[in-house]
Amino acid sequence: MKNETLTIIGGGLAGVEAAYQAAKMGLNVVLYEMRPEKQTPAHKTSYLSEIVCSNSFGSMRETTASGLLKREMELLGSITVETAKETKVPAGQALAVDREEFARRITEKLLRDPRIKLIRKEVENIPEDGPAIIATGPLTSDSLSSSIVEFTGRKNLYFFDATTPIVKADSIDMGKAFVASRYGKGGADYINCPMNKEEYEAFYVELMNAERTELRGFEDRLFESCLPIEEIASRGPQTLLFGPLKPAGLSDTATGEMPYAVVQLRQDNLSATLYSIVGFQTRLKWGEQKRVFSMIPCLHRAEFVRYGVMHRNTYINSPAILLTTLQTRQREGLFFSGQIVGVEGYMESAAMGIIAGIFAPLLIKGKKLLPPPRTTAIGSLLHYISHSSWKNFQPINFVFGILPSLNEKIRDSKTRRLAYYKRAIDDLQHWINDYLKRPVE
């Protein structure tokens, strides 16, 4: 391929990673982002890589799937992980960020790169020629979605997602709360709002009776890993106690005992003036959110700066459309990347952007594309989205369960996860050294 300018559509986590990687490899990039000319139902700013749900990128521990994925991304030079560490806020062993500062710094970094040209304009159709990456994410515009359907000959799939409410820190009643991390891991990074049995039961009744926003015109299809709190509650009165309100590992400093239920608040910005309600994705009407969530003792006078909202997440039927390299089967120079390919989660989406941003320049240079080994987190995600059954394809977070089995059986779960981690990092490092760093022949 002779065209040495790469077109990337979408300035979210995946599009930004793709642009950053391609520019590092010497390619000129034109990055299209429709915001703020055209906003989405979930975004609030014009920054690139704006995150709209939780401000947490998950655990950093080596024994977690999330920790492994981030470490692989670091080895590949991720701008997302780098900037997240620069803008992190206290969150125990999780990597959580000041969402606005994170997006602002990402935007500044890309604008400083002379190889990246940012155009604020909606792209309504798939580019007809030249190398291109579509990384428009779960909130792809209707016009581009129609173009994708026409190109692939297959209807897009979708599920519904919801964002969590955010409250002002100075409106939290700290006399009714305590600070701690679950099981004492990390610092005292969460504000915990305890509830006794009577308070919880009253809250549960009102939550179940609260008015919800209708999902007009679409099938009510929710993603199991990010269910609205009222949907979890509908599965039984005790369900929340084993989910977002579980008290396990937390002791009220005032009583020394484990509460009946606990609502956790996580710092949402560096100045610690805003806190998000952990696990409270919701489709309740805004007035109902204020009424019901104010029943939580430490939030009885809370000022909400953002209410939870419901939005549709679009993804393509990747097994029928994509190769393991994220190239479309119909056209080798056209890549899809990010959440639209059927991965779920901030880091998963960004990781797909890294791969597309590496592979597009290699394709232009004439190098045969070779995906990372399946034994790696990134390689296993690429294999999942390209080899699953297209008849019942569903988005997925990275989990150890999609990795190939270890050669030896290890009973202890922590030791087993460390073995997965070591194998993945070793294999990825070999791929980097033996494939990525080898000159094009």
Topology:
Blueprint: E1 5-9, H1 13-24, E2 28-33, E3 56-59, H2 65-75, H3 79-86, E4 88-89, E5 94-97, H4 99-112, E6 116-120, E7 132-134, H5 142-152, E8 157-162, E9 166-168, E10 178-180, E11 190-195, H6 197-209, H7 229-233, E12 261-267, E13 274-277, H8 286-293, E14 304-306, E15 310-315, H9 318-321, E16 334-336, H10 346-364, H11 377-387, H12 413-436
Parallel strand pairs: 1-2, 1-7, 2-6, 7-16
Antiparallel strand pairs: 3-5, 4-5, 8-15, 9-13, 9-14, 10-11, 11-12, 12-13
CATH arch. level architecture of the largest domain: 3-Layer(bba) Sandwich
How many distinct folded domains? Answer: 2
Helix count, per DSSP?
A: 12
Spans where pLDDT lies below 50 across 5 or more residues: none
Kindly state the percentage of residues in helix: 25-40%
- Strand residues, percent: 15-25%
Main sheet: strands, sense, barrel: 6 strands, antiparallel
Cα(first) to Cα(last) distance is 15 Å
Q: What is the general shape?
A: globular
SSE topology string: EHEEHHEEHEEHEEEEHHEEHEEHEHHH
Structural class: alpha/beta
The Cα radius of gyration reads 22 Å
What do we call the CATH homologous superfamily of the largest domain? FAD/NAD(P)-binding domain
Strand order of the largest sheet: 10-11-12-13-9-14
Roughly what is the average pLDDT, rounded to an integer?
90
CATH topology name of the largest domain, in short, is: FAD/NAD(P)-binding domain
- The total of beta strands comes to 16
Highest CATH level, the class of the largest domain: Alpha Beta
